[in-house]
Every structure is written in structure tokens, then in C-alpha cells.
Amino acid sequence: MKILLADDDADRVRLLMQALAADRSMIVLRLHPGELLLDAVAAHGPDVVLVDMARPDRDALESLRQLSASNPRPIALFVDQDDPSFMEAAIAAGVSSYNVVGTPPPDVKPILRAAVALFHRHQQTRAALDSAESRLEERSIIDQAKTRLIRQRRLSEPDAYRWLRRNAMSSGQRIVDVARKVLSEAEDSRP
Amino acid sequence: MTVKPPVRFGLLRLADSAPAVVALQRGFFRELGLTVELSVEPSWANIADKLAYGLLDAASMLPPLALAAALGLRGAPAGLLVPMGLSGGGNTVTVRREAADAIASPNGPDDALARGRRLGQWLRAQRSPPRFAVVHAFSTHNLLLRYWLAACGVDPDRDIETVVIPPEHVEAALAQGQIAGFCAGAPWGELAEQNGSGRHLLGTSEIWANHPEKCLAVAEPWANANPLAVERLLRGLLQAQRLCEQSGSAEWVAHLLALPPLSLPAAAVRACLPGGSGREHIRFHAGLAWYPRCSQALWFLAQMLRWGWLGTEIDLPRAARRVYRPDLLAAAADAEGLAWPDATYTSEGGFCDDAIFDQPHPE
After folding, report:
1. Is residue B354 part of a domain?
2. What residues in chain A have their Cβ under 8 A from chain B's Cβ atoms?
């Protein structure tokens, strides 16, 4: 069975290729940087295509069937559309799978499971990193707003923080949103 | 008091995503007691999948794709409903300058049919069928482009090669010579015109005057479980559509769409909004853009049948009626003081070939 991986994340591709390499009946191909998904599908004729949902070229892949009237090309359809809960898990993890009609791949489920598990783990790591980064960024915005309040309103540091907190509570916003507003107003009032 | 989870709303980087962005920014949803979270998606396939599998509740959608997804033409049949229209018009057919120059006819007739016939001559004179991009096979753009070409004696399956390119990449593809032309939504055609990489041949409202463009699609299980949220969502969008329709708001709307999360080119967007300098303008409220008329759905289905993408066994009026649900809009339209149209079906007209589309229907 030939599998084409359309995923720009080098780590994820490496891990998936490792996981699949145990089965010698499988040929795993990857999309090279800059290579068009449709060109790779036409060139390699994979049985299954696994696509990162962050890619914008899925619309092209799933339009093949309608647009190939005069130029017969492989036709793509979803693998596992008969298993809604598995599809939901895959989409939540950000991976979608297609198979080329006419060659229904046997025992494709373990491959898809491996892909979904990898995408899911990757997504959680990314989310943890993003949340750490955004907490740091929020702290820095609040600090800048405090500095500005200390200068403009001649407040002490604890008073500047209390000012932000009071305004946040009375307007039902988060402290960081009030801090952003302080900074943008200060910018607007510049000559 | 329990806090309801936010409504997850999907959209693409397009100027006709404005109603949802405006309703959120202007606080229309909040005033109605609704929290909405926007999710900018990289592909229409993502929107269709996420609606089908419960990762989005509602989205700005291509009507033919909503119908195709509901009919199971792409994966398992999806539970999608269309309770309102979000926009009309706004797309352009834009070609490389040499193609535009070759078919220009300063003295001859210059209506959509005459232009299409000259394009046909140019297409057949090329060594291989020139490539035209659309944004999805099941798009308004593809169906309107094919309708116009066929009306002008051009075979869209032989005289051009149709490729699918995401809307935000069509301008670059044209500039780099990968395609001869495209039919895409605002502001991408306008950007090609402004950058000098392309020239408009026509706006899609010259193919079908007053044609529907984006619709609102909602996930059926979510809509059934949250009728109140649906009504509030519709009301917020109706309010935003009215605001977007005013040319006096266009400057502000263009500025808003230029900010994250859409980050669109402001000048090109402005040209495509009501009162703008572009060839084609988006209708947000005018021409009943908000009303999901079942005969419009029937036209899209009839076009899909024409090109062999639907089995002849499919009962088109039933499919149209099952997906298009103007009844879900009635209460919201009433609350917003909108005059309700008389008929869910009319004979559709205003086509470039003067055809009248009058299919038998159940009512």
C-alpha cells in the first residue's frame, strides 16, 4: 500500500514515517516542499493520502472528481466516512484522509489511528506552548500599561495595578484587555 | 446561571465574510446575549468537515458546497441547513492582461455574451486549453463561469482547463503565469486589477444579475438543540448586513477587514463594497441578499446535474427544500422589521442569455 503524507511539519512526518516503517508492505511517500499536492497524487498514484488540515489545497484535492471530465485523473474520497466518531476525532486532531477510488485499501484503520494520535499529541504540545507564550505576552502588556499609568497618573506600582483591576471589574473585561486599551489610548494621544 | 458555550463561526479570508465580523465588532451579537467565536479556516473543505462533525456550529458557506455536502457528494451526507443568505454578487472573472488585450473590442458590442464569444475565439487559438482557477468545484464561481462560457458557445470541459486554487492565492498564480484567468470572490480580482497582473472581463452579476453568493450554513444538530441561539445569530447577522450595505459604512468596514483576523488589503476591499470603484460590488442586504430562496438552491442543483455531478435519481426540489430553510429565518426577520417575500420559489431570471429558470417545484 502506498501512502502519501501532505504535511509540512517535519517532526510529525518523521514520527509517522517511523511508526509506519515497521510494516514492510507499506510505501510511505512525503510531499516535498514546494511540490503541489495534485502533482504528487498524479505522479505517485497513492492508495491513501493523509493531509494536514491547515493546508489550503484540500479544496483542489476534493474537486478532482468534478473537474477531471476531459482529463481522467485519480479520484479522491474520504477514507472511513462510515465511522463518524473516528472522523470526528481525526478532524479535531487536524488530519484528513482520502483514498483513491477503485483501490479500497485493506486494513487502513491502524495507519489512520497512528496519524490521528500523532496529530493529536502535536496539537496538545502546540497548545501548551501557545498558552505559555500568550501568558508571557499578557504579563508584558500589563507591565507596560502599569509603567504608563505610573508616569501619566503619578501612581505607585501597586496603585497602578489596582487601577487596572478596578476598571477591569467594573467593565467586565479582563485586566489584560484594559491594559491594551490604556496602551492604545496613550498611542492615539501622541501628537 | 449557566454560561452557554460560544457559537463557533467559520469563515474564509474574503470580503463577503463582513457580516459576521461586523456583527461581532459592533457588539450586535453581544447585545442579543450571544457569544460568538470566529474561526478563520484555510479551506472550504475545512468548513464543510467541521460543520459536519460538530467542530463548527455555523459558517459562511458556498451554497453549492452546502448542497453537495448535504447530498453526500463529498464524504458522508452532512447535516447542514441554510437558514439565510449572507451576500450576493461580488466575484469577478479576471484574466491576464494579454488575454484581456487580445479580446478587447473598443467598437464592437460589449455585453457579457459578446465578450464571452471573443474569449472563446482566443481560447481555441491557444496551443492547449488555458488554465482557469476557481476556488472549489462546488462553488458559485465555478457554476457561474461554466454557465457563462457555455452560453457563449465555449465548452468548459474542453476549451479551458479548470484548476482549484484558494482565493487568497489566485492573484499570485495569475501574476506568475500559472493560470490565464480566474473567477474568484472579492477582493482578490480587484487586487489583480490594482497590481496590474490582471484585468476584469466581467463581474458575476453580469452572468446572473442579483445572484446569491455566500449563505449561512448551520450544523443541523446544533440548530435543533439551540433554536434561541439560531434566532439571535440570524438577527445579529441581519443587523450587520444592513450596516454593510450602506456606502457610508464602507470605509470603516474595509478598515475592519484589514485588521486581524482577516487582514485583507483595505483598498481592494473598499472597491468591492457598496459604492466602491470596483467592477462588481457585494450586495449584503440589497436584492434580498439575506433571503434563502429555494428556487436559487434549485438552480445550483440543476447546474450540478447539467455537468453530470449529480445522479439523475436525486429529487432536486426535495433536496433544495431539505437544505434551504427560510422558515427558520421568519422570526428573526420579523423582529428586525424586514418585509417577508411572498414566495419561497419564483421563476429565476436576469441571466446573460435571457433564459428563465422555472423548474417544477412542490409548492
Report:
1. no
2. 53-63, 65-67, 69-71, 77-78, 81-82, 84, 87-88, 91-92, 96
Looking at residue A110, its pLDDT comes to 81
A2-126 belongs to CATH 3.40.50: no
Do residues B75 and B217 both lie within one domain? yes
- Test B43 with A56 for CB contact under 8 angstroms: yes
- Residue A70 predicted with pLDDT over 50: no
- Residues B267, B174: one domain? no
Verify that B137 and B104 share a domain, yes or no. Answer: yes
Mark whether B57 and B120 lie in a shared domain.
no
* Pick from B75, B158, B165: CB nearest A81: B75
Residue A78 has pLDDT above 80, yes or no: no
Q: How far apart are CA B321 and CA B354, in angstroms?
A: 26
Residues of A in contact with B45 (CB under 8 A): 58-59, 61-62, 96
End residue of a domain, out of B206, B238, B254:
B206
Output the domain CATH number for residue B262: 3.40.190.10
Give residue for cell 422589521.
B337
Q: In this structure, are B220 and B329 located in the same domain? A: yes
Do residue B157 and residue A82 have CB atoms under 8 angstroms apart? no
Q: Is the sign of the CA dihedral B184, B185, B186, B187 positive or negative?
A: negative
Interface test with chain A among B41, B47, B53, by most A beta carbons within 10 Å? B53
Q: Side chain identity at B41, as an amino acid letter?
A: E
CATH 1.10.10.10 fits A133-188, yes or no: yes
Give strand pairing partners of A2.
A27
Q: Is B300 left (phi over 0), alpha (psi -120 to 50) or beta?
A: alpha
A104-120 pLDDT, tens digit per residue, is 567 777 888 888 888 98
Quick one: pLDDT at residue B3? 63
If residue B181 lies in a helix (H) or strand (E), which one and from where to where? strand B181-184
Chain B CB contacts of A71 below 8 Å: 161
Q: How confident is the model at residue A74 (pLDDT cuts 50, 70, 90)?
A: low
> Which residues, other chains included, contact B184 with Cβ-Cβ below 8 Å and sequence gap of 6+?
B91, B92, B94, B133, B134, B135, B141, B167, B170
Does residue B165 sit in the same domain as residue B179?
A: yes
Kindly report the pTM of this predicted structure.
0.88
For chain B, the domain total comes to 2
Which among B170, B196, B172 is positioned nearest to B185, based on CA atoms? B170
Q: Would B216 be classed as within a structural domain?
A: yes
Domain contains B199:
yes
Query: How confident is residue A71, by pLDDT bands cut at 50, 70 and 90?
Result: very low
- Here the ipTM equals 0.91
